[in-house]
């Protein structure tokens, strides 16, 4: 017994002390002979007894200078009896921390039998089992399964010496999100794929390749020729692809503040609500592409969808050359036959190229560059019908997306926009936006839903002081019809006509025949809350205006308008319609307006002070301001109190009428009453009716010290002319009014004084006293002369003009 034990111990000691490097080298050479691959051993070999195995570290397997596998520790399990013979027989191979191609494997064990391999491994925490078998006729079968990911790969074909594989490959992956965790795919996505495989003699090909997943089906081929450099040819056709169904956003949160790109207006903008979440990380560069590969790549996608928006006929023709992706041509169709084309070069730092757009009524081009942090459109130039847009657009995403635009849009030569986006998932949230158009700056927050046929916009915007006179009009250029060449008499007539003053100058109609373009109301739907420090125009100044506006199907509904006006308050609501022709329906009211700031006047009379309330309801439609005025229908009312009228002194006139004893008194009446002065009034009230192109106030009445002034005002809106009357009833002679009739242009009417009633009253009260006779009777020629003198006097009051 002792002898047996001693012999066993001696044998074990000899096995442990033996140099096994030669035997491992012999096994490596046998492997190279059988496979045609190269094996490099980076460390010395050693023997372990439990279980019996030869281990070696840092093993590398390659083919034609291309590394196929790197193994930190390789263990060859051997038969115990073969150790004693000196020629070991390997029964299993164990890999520890191996990298096979681009895949890292923690552990792998292969059982070697009669042309059969069975093994298992772990990959990303998942157990992997596989089995391979080669029959006597070289028919080969390989199965690989990952049960926890519901994934199975199967190959059926033939294995020839070399080695060379030829057969059919199928893949069923039931959990792509778990299989490819780095791509952040949505849960439940599956893939079925199959192809004919050829591999051997430095060549690899997948032909008749088909892929089917999430309703998308693709077909193509991949061919690889190993070498230095390796050659790759790939071709793939996809019928349709919905990117939104493949994209699972990690976060909708962005950091806070917008960089100072535009000068902000005065006043505070609405503060956006903070969105919880984790900011997305952005890589600093694109993944490096292999520099020892030459590739030819072709991709066609029939329909590419993104949150309801579809692109068609996407095609990419590209090549890989020394680590750069050269896009020879990329194109797609968008919307109503709009075509976009792109070419350029992508390296590890950025893509640089050229973008072109073409379609019905639209064309454009731009230099394009983008990196993982930024996309830039420089020298951007686009034309849509007669609207020309040029400038630069930059989008930067570092924990979010910041977009900046500066340039010209049609006749708007100075425009700029800066915006911060919190999410982009078909619905865009912009918690901070600044925009500038000339002298107008606006900022606030906007949200947009782009998944609907018509964009849905929600906005809260704030501006500073807005001067309408300084704002540009439509960005579309005004069309000027070419003038025919004229000669002789026709030329002289044209020059004479052009030398005449335009009819729409000061004093003319404020309503022009220029076409109204309200088509912008049809571009989008949404709701807008707008605020400003002030709004200045021909109407005066609105202080702190606040507007709530809803847009839907080309109709703008003014839900509420509030503003300070003339030290009072104005409010309005109504709607504006773009189609079939511009139209409006407005209700407005003013409370407590200061008449001294209104500067309203008519026929030489001006409201100098007082407080007024007013209401107006108006409907109109038409393709020009003139058409609007001609079709206008509405009503309103004015109620003013405790004010002063400049241009007439009723108290002075009334006082003179009580003391008309001679011609001097009458002349004083003309000078002191109707030639200026002021009148304090208690009330000024009347109604307004608008119809048939005419605005009329039949009952406007001013009650003042010294008398009452009643007016029947009528203005024809399109020609801007008046046919009105003012009736002055003095307190001294309440039943004998003086009537002023006004006719002609509103700003300079012809005035006729109708004094028949007053003249009759004066004659009846004693014509002699008016002529300086203190009590004598008047008859005959004296009476006739007196009447003539009296008529001349009333001409002095304005009746002859």
Shape: rod-shaped
End-to-end distance: 155 Å
With helices defined by DSSP (H or I, 4 residues minimum), what is the helix count? 11
State which percent range the strand residues make up.
over 45%
Low-confidence sequence ranges? 2-17, 248-282, 497-506, 662-668, 767-780, 782-801
Derived from helix and strand composition plus strand pairing, the structural class reads: mainly beta
Mean pLDDT: 77
The description of the largest β-sheet is:
43 strands, mixed
By DSSP, the count of extended strands is 43
Helix content: 10-25%
CA gyration radius, whole angstroms: 47 Å
Summary, kept brief:
The protein is mainly beta and 801 residues long. Helix content is 14%, strand content 54%. A hairpin with a 2-residue loop joins strand 13 (203-213) and strand 14 (216-225).
Description:
With 801 residues, the protein is mainly β. Helix content is 14%, strand content 54%. It contains eleven helices and 43 strands. It has a 43-stranded mixed beta sheet that branches. A hairpin with a 2-residue loop joins strand 31 and strand 32 (555-565). The radius of gyration is 47 Å and the shape is rod-shaped.
């Amino acid at each position: 017994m002792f002898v047996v034990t001693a012999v066993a111990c001696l044998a074990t000691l000899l096995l442990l002390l033996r140099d096994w490097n030669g035997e491992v080298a012999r096994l490596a050479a046998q492997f190279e002979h059988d496979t045609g691959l190269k094996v490099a051993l980076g460390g010395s070999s050693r023997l372990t007894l439990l279980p019996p195995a030869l281990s070696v570290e840092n093993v590398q397997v390659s083919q034609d200078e291309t590394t196929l596998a790197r193994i930190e520790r390789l263990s060859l399990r051997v038969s115990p009896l073969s150790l004693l013979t000196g020629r070991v027989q390997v029964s299993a191979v164990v890999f520890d921390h191996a990298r096979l191609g681009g895949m890292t494997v923690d552990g792998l064990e292969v059982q070697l039998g009669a042309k059969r391999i069975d093994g298992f491994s772990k990959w990303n925490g998942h157990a992997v089992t596989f089995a391979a078998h080669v029959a006597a006729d070289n028919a080969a079968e390989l199965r690989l399964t990952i049960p926890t990911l519901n994934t199975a790969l199967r190959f059926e074909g033939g294995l020839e010496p070399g080695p060379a594989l030829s057969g059919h490959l199928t893949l069923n992956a039931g959990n792509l999100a778990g299989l490819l965790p780095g791509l952040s795919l949505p849960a439940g996505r599956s893939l079925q794929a199959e192809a004919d495989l050829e591999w051997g003699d430095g060549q690899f090909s997948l032909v008749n390749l088909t892929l089917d997943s999430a309703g998308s089906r693709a077909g193509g081929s991949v061919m690889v020729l190993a070498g230095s450099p390796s050659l790759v040819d790939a071709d793939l056709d996809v019928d349709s692809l919905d990117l939104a169904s493949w994209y699972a956003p990690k976060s909708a949160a962005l950091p806070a503040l917008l960089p100072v790109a535009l000068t902000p207006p005065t006043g505070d903008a609405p503060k956006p609500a903070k969105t919880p979440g984790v900011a997305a990380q952005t890589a600093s560069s694109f993944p490096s592409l292999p520099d020892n590969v030459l590739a030819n790549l072709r991709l066609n996608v029939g329909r590419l969808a993104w949150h309801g928006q579809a692109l068609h006929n996407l095609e990419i023709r590209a090549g890989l050359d020394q680590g750069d992706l050269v896009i020879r041509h990329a194109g797609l169709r968008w919307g109503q036959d709009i075509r976009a084309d792109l070419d350029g070069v992508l390296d590890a730092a950025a893509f640089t190229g050229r973008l072109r757009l073409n379609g019905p009524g639209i064309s454009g081009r731009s230099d394009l560059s983008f990196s993982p942090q930024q996309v830039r459109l420089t020298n951007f130039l686009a034309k849509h019908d007669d609207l020309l847009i040029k400038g630069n657009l930059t989008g930067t995403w570092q924990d979010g997306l910041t977009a900046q635009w500066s340039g010209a849009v049609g006749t708007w030569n100075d425009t700029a926009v800066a915006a911060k986006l919190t999410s982009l998932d078909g619905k865009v949230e912009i918690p901070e936006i600044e925009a500038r158009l000339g002298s107008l700056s606006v900022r606030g927050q906007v949200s947009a839903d782009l998944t609907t046929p018509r964009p849905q916009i929600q906005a809260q915007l704030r501006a500073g002081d807005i001067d309408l006179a300084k704002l540009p009009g439509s960005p579309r250029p005004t069309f000027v019809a070419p003038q025919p060449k004229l000669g002789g008499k026709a030329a002289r007539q044209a020059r004479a006509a052009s030398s005449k003053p335009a009819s729409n100058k000061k004093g003319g109609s404020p309503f022009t025949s220029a076409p109204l373009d309200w088509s912008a109301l049809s571009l989008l739907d949404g709701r807008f809350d707008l605020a400003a420090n002030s709004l200045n125009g021909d109407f005066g100044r609105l202080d702190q205006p606040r507007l709530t506006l809803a847009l839907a199907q080309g109709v703008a509904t003014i839900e509420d308008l509030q503003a300070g006006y003339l030290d009072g308050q104005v409010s309005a609501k109504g709607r504006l319609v773009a189609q079939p022709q511009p139209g409006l329906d407005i209700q407005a009211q003013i409370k407590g307006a200061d008449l001294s700031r209104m500067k309203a006047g008519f026929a030489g009379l001006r409201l100098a002070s007082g407080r007024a309330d007013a209401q107006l309801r108006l409907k109109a439609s038409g393709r020009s301001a003139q058409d609007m005025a001609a079709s206008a229908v509405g009503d309103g009312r004015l109620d003013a109190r405790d004010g002063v009228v400049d241009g007439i002194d009723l108290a002075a006139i009334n006082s003179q009428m009580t003391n008309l004893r001679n011609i001097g008194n009458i002349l004083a009446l003309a000078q002191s009453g109707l030639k200026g002065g002021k009148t304090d009034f208690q009330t000024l009230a009347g109604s307004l009716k608008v119809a048939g192109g005419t605005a009329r106030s039949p009952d406007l009445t001013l009650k003042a010290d010294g008398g009452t002034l009643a007016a029947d005002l009528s203005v024809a809106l399109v020609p801007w002319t008046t046919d009105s009357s003012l009736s002055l009833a003095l307190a001294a002679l309440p039943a004998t009014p003086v009537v002023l009739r006004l006719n002609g242009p509103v700003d300079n009417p012809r005035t006729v004084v109708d004094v028949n009633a007053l003249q009759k009253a004066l004659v009846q009260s004693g014509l002699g006293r008016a002529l300086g006779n203190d009590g004598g009777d008047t008859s005959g020629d004296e009476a006739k002369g007196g009447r003539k003198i009296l008529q001349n006097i009333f001409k002095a009051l304005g009746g002859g003009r």
